[in-house]
Write a structure and sequence with these properties.
Layout lengths: L8 H17 L7 H16 L5 E6 L15 E2 L5 E10 L1 H6 L5 E8 L11 E7 L13 H12 L7 E5 L5 H10 L2 E5 L3 H9 L7 E7 H14 L2 E6 L4 H9 L10 H4 L6 E6 L10 E2 L3 E10 L4 E10 L17 E3 L1
Helix pairs in contact: 1-2, 6-7
Length: 335
């Protein structure tokens, strides 16, 4: 395979999500999701200025007039390979505000022009699963039949199948059907990027992710799944007739099933996620008197590698007690 993204980018991308996670973790459990998100955005934006890429934000915090930094279309990086960027500086703003598990700072890149731009489509129905059941995934198959097919493929009973679903009122009817079929349903308050990765990685107790969640998170999940294996499929899910009209006017097909390759059209991807709070994928930020420690999951699609990078980030003494500083100006990163 011809690789356009150098292996050295792994540490560079980890530094970006580390900065966001540390800044957001200063707001863990403090009840203000907006300030936590802003802290992550500011810190990641500063770190991106030093990242050796020539990036365009395809998935970001919103349009330019809604988000002064990391907005869709913003150009970032210090120069290097031309890439698309999908970024969610704080995946789980409410989780962070409430001090709950599985909050992440996430970031993904792929060669320029290969990431799906959802335009005005805020939500999509998603289904994800690992390599062994990838060909079985279907958004049109009744959930009972899908669960039976997955159990048969895995050589187990439906009662052994675990499904992770966002805890939303819109999902209650489908959740009831899953439970009636015998499946174990794990409800999560937020964070379906983590849920997607749990569905495709072995040993998590989760076999499927299903539900209507953010379209940006679908692209981030596809970037990660490119490295892990498995599959995610989605279908755009407009909330109103006006939104449906806007999506159609943007040239997007509401009936089309978007496969992993449609969401990210290159195997040459990177995905990084640093834990803000402790979770299923990585441990959250730990603060000490003079440093912070982080764990970052870094996935590379070109060679299907998965690494967890543990870092100790030293803080200048004059910064460590400033609320919100988050050690983002730390002088040294060791990985």
């Amino acid at each position: 395979m011809s690789e356009t993204l150098p292996s050295s980018l792994a540490l560079d991308l980890a530094r970006v999500t580390e900065a966001g996670a540390i800044a957001a973790a200063r707001w863990l459990g403090r009840g203000d999701k907006n300030l936590a998100d802003k802290a992550a955005v500011d810190a990641m934006r500063d770190a991106l200025e030093r990242c050796p890429i020539s990036g365009v934000v395809v998935i970001g915090e919103g349009e330019k007039d809604e988000a002064p930094m990391l907005y869709i279309g913003e150009e970032v990086g210090s120069g290097g390979p031309a890439v698309d960027i999908a970024v969610d500086p704080l995946e789980g703003t409410t989780l962070t505000a409430k001090g709950q598990p599985n909050a992440l700072a996430t970031f993904a890149i792929a060669p320029r022009g290969t990431m799906f731009n959802p335009g005005p489509a805020v939500y999509m129905e998603k289904l994800a699963g690992g390599p062994a059941i990838a060909d079985l995934l279907s958004l049109d198959t009744p959930i009972e039949e899908l669960l039976e097919a997955v159990a048969k493929r895995k050589g187990c009973h439906v009662r052994d199948i675990g499904v992770v679903v966002l805890d939303r009122d819109r999902h209650m009817e489908q959740i009831g059907r899953m439970r009636a079929a015998g499946a174990r349903v794990r409800l999560i308050p937020d964070g379906d990027v983590a849920g997607s990765l749990m569905a495709v990685r072995p040993g998590t107790g989760i076999d499927l992710l299903w539900g209507v969640g953010g379209t940006p998170e679908g692209v981030l999940s596809a970037s990660a799944i490119r490295s892990v294996g498995g599959r995610i499929i989605g279908r755009l899910w407009p909330r109103t007739e006006d939104e449906a009209a806007a999506i159609t006017a943007a040239g997007l097909d509401l009936q089309r099933i978007l496969d992993t390759d449609d969401l990210v059209g290159s195997q040459d991807t990177y995905f990084a996620a640093t834990g803000v709070s402790d979770g299923d994928l990585v441990t959250g930020v730990r603060f000490f008197d003079d440093h912070a420690e982080t764990d970052t999951l870094v996935l590379r699609g070109a060679c299907r590698t998965q690494r967890v990078i543990s870092s100790s980030i030293q803080a200048e003494a004059r910064l460590k007690h400033i609320p919100g500083s988050g050690y983002e100006n730390a002088a040294r990163v060791m990985a």
